[in-house]
Amino acid sequence: RLLRGEEELDMQVLLAELPWDYAINYFKDVFGLVVTEDMQGIVIEKVLPNSAAARIELRPGDRLVEIEGSRIDSLQSLVAKIEDNLGRLPLRFAVYRGNRGYLVELP
């Protein structure tokens, strides 16, 4: 139900799934990360200059393994987790670099 002035209107809204690339673009725009999937999971391909990710010194080659405590091992699981948390900031990530793991918050 929508109120326009003093007139009440009934409206129906149809919710659709987000386009596949929406979450990937959100991830890039909000966190400054371009990621790809390989045989071992999600790897950072590029860190945008002056981004939240650059400020905490994430690097190409770092691996993202968790978001908010949930394991991510594919672009599909990354997209699902980002969609579940759209608008919720900061988010906590588990990142592996070499043989070390880190917990970081972005942004």
- C-alpha Rg (nearest Å): 18 Å
The end-to-end distance, rounded to whole angstroms, is 36 Å
CATH C-level category: Mainly Beta
Structural class: alpha+beta
The fraction of residues in strands falls at 35-45%
Helix-strand pattern: EEHEEHEEHEE
Low-confidence stretches: none
Biggest sheet: strands, sense, closure?
6 strands, antiparallel
Count of discrete alpha- or pi-helical segments spanning 4 or more residues: 3
Mean pLDDT: 93
Number of separate strands? 8
Instruction: Specify the CATH homologous superfamily.
Output: PDZ domain
Question: What is the overall shape?
Answer: elongated
By CATH, the architecture is named Roll
Q: Secondary structure elements and their pairing?
A:
Elements: E1 2-4, E2 7-9, H1 20-31, E3 33-38, E4 41-47, H2 52-55, E5 63-67, E6 70-71, H3 75-84, E7 91-97, E8 100-106
Antiparallel strand pairs: 1-2, 3-4, 4-5, 5-6, 5-7, 7-8
Helix pairs in contact: 1-3
Task: Write a brief caption for the model.
With 107 residues, the chain is α+β, with helices and mostly antiparallel strands. Helices cover 24% and strands 37% of the residues.
Please name the defining characteristics of this protein.
107 residues, alpha+beta, Pdz3 Domain, 3 helices
Describe the protein in words:
Helix 1 packs across helix 3 (75-84). The chain has one domain (2-106): Pdz3 Domain (Roll). A hairpin with a 2-residue loop joins strand 7 (91-97) and strand 8. It contains three helices and eight strands; from the N terminus they run E-E-H-E-E-H-E-E-H-E-E. The longest helix is centred in the first third of the chain and has 12 residues, at 20-31. The protein has helices at 20-31, 52-55, 75-84, and strands spanning 2-4, 7-9, 33-38, 41-47, 63-67, 70-71, 91-97, 100-106. Strands 3, 4, 5, 6, 7 and 8 form a six-stranded antiparallel sheet that branches. The protein is elongated. The mean pLDDT is 93. By secondary structure, the protein is an alpha+beta fold.
